[in-house]
Structure formats: C-alpha cells, structure tokens
Amino acid sequence: MLNLAVIANTIAIVLGSAMGILSGKGITARFRNVLFQALGLLTLGLGIKMFFDYKSALIVLASLAAGGLIGEALKIEDRLARLADRLGPGEGANFARGFVVAVVLFVPGPMTVIGSLRAGLAGNGELLFVKSLMDGISAIMLAAAYGKGVLLSAVGVYLAEGLLVTFASSLAFLQEPRYLGDFSAVGGLMLLAIGIRMLELREIKAGNYLPALLIVPILSHFFGA
Rounded to an integer, what distance in angstroms lies between the CA atom of residue 128 and that of residue 115? Predict the structure, then answer.
C-alpha cells in the first residue's frame, strides 16, 4: 500500500481539491454552471473514447446490467452519499455528489489498472505519475464546482490503487487486451452516465454500476474472444 506512485496520485488529488475549494469560493453560481457544463462535456468525451476499446459489446452490456442490478439492490450510491454526509455533516448535497462523481471519474479506468499493476509487478510507477497530473488538474475543476466532497475521493483512489499494487502478482492477467478492453468500455459508460448527470440531462446513479467492474473480467474470462 505504501507505493510512491500511489501516494503521489493521492497527494495530487488532495492538493488539486484544496486549490479548487479555495478558488471556487469566489465563483458565482452563473460561472459555476459553466464549469459544470465544461466538466460534463469533457467527461462525455472521455467516456465515449473509453467505450470504443471494447472487445465484446454483449459482455459490456451484461456486466453493466448485472452490476447495475446488484448496485441498485445494495443501494451503493445512496450508501456512498450517506457516508459522505457523515464525514462532512452540514456540507450539503454538493458534498456527497462531488465525492461520488470524483470516485467514479478517478477510479474505474485503464490507467488505474495498468498503472497500479505495473507499479506492483515491476516497480514502474510512470503511468500513475502521469495519472496523478491529470487527476490533480481534474480535481481543481471538480472541487471548484462541487466543493470539499472531491477531497474525500482521495481516500478511495488510495485504497483502490493500493490494493491493486499489493495484489498485482495475482491480478496481472487484467493487463491482457481481452480483459482490459471490456473493462475500459464499462468504465467509459460509467463516465458517460456521470457526464449526462453533470449536464443535468438525466439523473443516473453511476455509483450503482461499480459492481460491473468486478463482473466484467469474470465474463471476459469465460466468454471473451
């Protein structure tokens, strides 16, 4: 868990969030709305790009459907929101929403998986250092729009990447194209859901689809090409 690249990624999110929180205090509601729209459009673009890495659309669909049903049954997003409320009492709805949006944006992506596995297997943290820069910049914008909830997402990133690094020897197979492509596509569709919500087109509980990230490598193993 005490991997330098993972720690750097965590610190980048903390520093970016702190900068965003400080700069966001002087932003009026009108300009904050522009920030939301810019972030929403960027998230849509990233989601579309990631989706086209898919190997099997059927596996992606089955993973999302099964993961979404499990997440809805367990009320994962509601539980994440309640956790955020307990950790930031009195902060308002934006605190919980910022936490959920940031977790979905920073965690389920190929850079997280490949970067963490490389750091754990070969001690090569280069990809995670690049991700740290990207996450830090994104955290500035997210925190300026949503506030302190984005800061809390650093804990989720540290735990996810730290666990991947720790168990890298057992999870090395996830780097293979047959697994990574559909995993990336599922993460991309989750980002699309976040983008749609940020643009206020429809309220989609993207956090409920997190179990899909665990289901997709299983389906890829048994049914992938």
Answer: 5
